[in-house]
Amino acid sequence: MRKFAIIVAAFLVSASLGWSEQEIRIGIGTQDTTINCAAGGAVVRELHLLEKYLPHDGKYQGVKYELVWHNFTSGAPANSELLANKLDITNMADFPAVLGASAFQAADNGVHTYYIATLSGSVRGAGNAVVVPIGSQIQSFSELKGKRISVPFGSTAHAMLLRAIRDQDWDPERDVTIITQAPEVAGSALKAGQIDAHADFVPFGELFPFRGIARKIYDGTSAGVPTTHGVQVRSDFAEKYPELVIAYLRATLEASRLIQERPEELSEKLAAWTGVEAEICYAFHGPAGIQTRDYTLKPEYIDAIRRAEQSLRELKKTDRPLDVNSLVNDKYIREAAKEQGLDYEAHVKNYAPAPFTKNAENTNSPVTDIKLAGQIWILGEATVRLYSTPEAALTAASKAEADGKKVRVVYVHDRASGTKLFADKAWFVSAGGRLDAFLLKTDADAWAAKRGGIVLNYPDAQKAVGARLAGKN
Alpha-carbon distance 361 to 251, whole Å? Predict the structure, then answer.
């Protein structure tokens, strides 16, 4: 009896001091192959960054955390698990975030969602793209009239596609045939020639061309529709455990910092974790990448969510208006930024891409114009080489190959938009002793016509710089 009394007394004392063990399960949804979400998913998970920030004092003293990670290829299944209370936090783009919030609104159970932070985005629309089969003769979006185009319905790429169609003054019901198709299905359809074009989000506009499946003919920057991927959380979880939401966001901020400091290393790791080649990961996350990693809820990103809400109602994917002002909630990311020593307000105003942190190898000086930058990644080299012009990059790549080295990838930038391109998929204009790179042949043709230049594909551009190099020697 005395032993029992001692046990009871010890239990009461430990409970009064907050020592009783409690388990908190945190369900987190990621989209690993949507690599612009890396700072909220794979990097946090694989480097165990969340564990570093989870609190263990105050009301969390003695708490045991169970972290449950779920990986999805799109936002729809993540929304289903969020609604079913199997997830607390998830990563997704603007369109699926609105669809998820609308599902909670329809459930009308007192729980809703908050869109609490950005992971990556583009105020110009970079990241979304339209591709055609590799053997297609189509060179521009204007040639798709009467064609069969697939797209994941209700996605941010769907919005880009509809905007591009409107810009052509086409009727989306009559002038093109649009079908819904997930990216994994579209890859096979492109190879088989079953579709004329496919519109998709990150990273498929780069992944399909890199793998030799397709060729990009349209970039989201042409539509100019801002796009964003970010973090969504259940309101009941956020309000009960705000410290845990802030801990997760602090982990994403550290992940983003690590990617910026070590882009090649993290791109290699992401390739192993996601199955998306390191060269593609670097195209997004390296300096002057295709999209900008961000954490703030910039006005353009909020507008993207608002536009998604309007578009989804027009597409009859939702049937009730959604209050975007109530959906977007920046208090958690503001506190996380503060705790990480970051100036949230200053970063809201910062639109600069990740900077080049070293001098160009051909000039030993900083690159002054991103649109003229070139980079090469040599197999076996830990860092990507930087050059101040496309011709310098192509010259260095040719010399490296002549020396028996394998060039993994050459990057250049579209002269019009600044978007990073794979050089072997780009068009070049040779004029006045220099090269300018373009995504679209039509843009290259126009540039050449104005400057008296000639349009070259990648092999011919390599020959041109090789001939100039030989002439100097």
Answer: 34
Contact 391, 435 (CB under 8 A): yes
Region for 228 from its dihedrals, namely left if φ exceeds 0, alpha if ψ lies in -120 to 50, beta otherwise: beta
Kindly indicate whether the domain formed by 129-223 is annotated with CATH number 1.20.1440.230.
Answer: no
Phi-psi region of 72 (alpha: psi -120 to 50; beta: other; left: phi over 0): beta
Q: What is the CATH number of domain 2-123+227-348?
A: 3.40.190.10
Residue 266: alpha-carbon gap to chain centroid: 15
Distances (CA, A) of 142 to 83, 118, 305: 41, 33, 28
Query: Domain 370-472 is in which class?
Result: alpha beta
Specify which residues 277 forms β-bridges with.
Answer: none
End-to-end CA distance of the chain: give it in Å, rounded. Answer: 99
Tokens of residue 268, six digits: 């290699």
Q: Alpha-carbon distance 282 to 398, whole Å?
A: 21
Q: What is the DSSP letter of 216?
A: E
Task: Kindly list the domain boundaries of the chain, sorted by start residue.
Answer: 2-123+227-348, 129-223, 370-472
DSSP string, 62-100: TEEEEEEEEE-SSHHHHHHHHHTTS-SEEEEEHHHHHHH
Model pLDDT for residues 183-209, shown as the tens digit of each residue: 989 999 999 999 999 999 999 999 999
Please say whether the beta carbons of 175 and 144 come within 8 A: no
Query: At 11, phi and psi to the nearest 5?
Result: -65, -45
**Do 202 and 155 touch, CB atoms closer than 8 A?**
no
- Given a cut of 90, whether residue 467 has pLDDT beyond it is no
Give the up-direction half-sphere exposure of residue 187: CA atoms within 13 A in the CB hemisphere. 13
Among 466, 14, 43, 58, smallest CA distance to 293 is for 43
Q: Would the CATH topology of 2-123+227-348 be identical to that of 129-223?
A: yes
The closest of 146, 141, 143, 121 to 130, measured between CA atoms, is 141
pTM over 0.70: yes
How far apart, in whole angstroms, are the C-alpha atoms of residue 10 and residue 27?
Answer: 33
Query: Could you report the per-residue pLDDT of 28-82, keeping only the tens digit for each?
Result: 999 999 999 999 999 999 999 999 999 999 999 999 999 999 999 888 899 999 9
